[in-house]
Specification:
Its main location: membrane. Helices cover about 40% and strands about 15% of the residues. It is α/β, with parallel strands linked by helices and about 220 residues long. The strands form two sheets. Strands 3-2-1-4-5-6-9 form a seven-stranded parallel beta sheet, sandwiched between helices. A two-stranded parallel ribbon has the order 7-8. It starts with a strand and ends in a 5-residue tail after the last helix.
Length: about 220
C-alpha cells in the first residue's frame, strides 16, 4: 500500500506515521505538511505545502496512493467558529477532493473525536463543525471512514503542539495504564489508531464511523490474506 498522511507532526499524526512505517504492507508514505517531520526513513517522502484550502498545485503528486490518513486538527479553545471551520471543515474537504481527483478509488480516513455530533443539534461548536465535516466526507466517498477516538495515549516522547493538550496529557498520560483497565472502551493509543486506519484501508470496515472500541477492535484484527 501507498499512504498519504496529513498532520504527521502532531501528537496523533506521529503515532499514525509510525504505524505506517512499521507496516510491511506499506511501501511508501507521503507526508503533506507545512513543517518537516524530522523523520528519516526509506519509505518516507515529504511534500511541503502551505495553502490547505487549495491543493491544485500539488494534486498530481497525490496520484497512485491507496489511502489518506488525515490527522490534522486543532483545539477549538479560544477560536471563533469561523476560524475553526476553516481548519476543521475547509482543510479536510479540500484535501479529500484533491485526493479523490487524483486517486478516485483511494480510502480517506479522518480523525474526528468522541462527542462529535453529526445531527447538527448540539450547542458545542466543535462537535457541530466536526459533525458537518463527517457528513460531507461520508457523502463525498463511499470509501471514507470517520475515526472518533476519546482518550489517545501518544507515543513515548511525543509532544503536542496545542498548549491545552500539552497540559491535559501531562496530567492524564501517567494514568494511561489505570484508564486502560477501568475504561478500555474509551482509551486507545496513537499507534493503535494508525493500525486501525491501515486495516480499514486494506480490508475496509463494517462501520464507517468508528468509536474508540471499534478502533481498538479493528487495530487488533488479524489481517485477512
Amino acid at each position: 500500500m501507498r499512504i498519504i498522511v496529513f498532520g504527521a507532526t502532531g501528537m496523533v499524526g506521529q503515532g499514525v506515521l509510525e504505524a505506517c512505517l512499521r507496516e510491511e504492507e506499506v511501501s511508501a508514505v507521503l507526508v503533506v505538511g507545512r513543517t518537516p517531520t524530522g523523520c528519516s526513513h526509506s519509505k518516507l517522502r515529504e511534500l511541503h505545502h502551505e495553502d490547505f484550502t487549495d491543493f491544485s498545485a500539488v494534486e498530481d503528486q497525490l496520484a497512485g496512493y491507496d489511502a489518506c490518513f488525515y490527522c490534522l486538527g486543532t483545539s477549538a479553545v479560544g477560536m471563533s467558529e469561523a476560524d475553526y471551520r476553516v481548519v476543521s471543515l475547509d482543510f479536510p474537504l479540500a484535501a479529500a477532493r484533491a485526493l479523490l481527483a487524483a486517486a478516485p478509488d483511494a480510502v480517506f480516513c479522518y480523525v474526528t473525536g468522541a462527542g462529535t455530533d453529526s445531527t447538527g443539534k448540539t450547542r458545542m461548536m466543535w462537535a457541530r463543525v466536526k459533525g458537518e465535516t463527517e457528513n460531507a466526507l461520508l457523502e463525498l466517498s463511499p470509501r471514507a471512514y470517520m475515526f472518533r477516538p476519546a482518550f489517545i495515549a501518544p507515543l513515548p516522547g511525543t509532544k503536542a503542539k496545542t498548549k491545552s493538550y500539552v497540559l491535559l496529557y501531562r496530567v492524564v498520560t501517567p494514568l494511561y495504564p489505570l484508564l486502560r483497565r477501568l475504561i478500555p472502551r474509551y482509551v486507545t493509543t496513537s499507534l493503535q489508531l494508525g493500525q486501525a486506519m491501515l486495516r480499514a484501508a486494506r480490508h475496509g470496515s463494517r462501520r464507517r464511523v468508528l468509536e474508540t472500541a471499534d478502533i481498538n477492535e479493528l487495530a487488533a484484527a488479524r489481517p485477512t490474506p
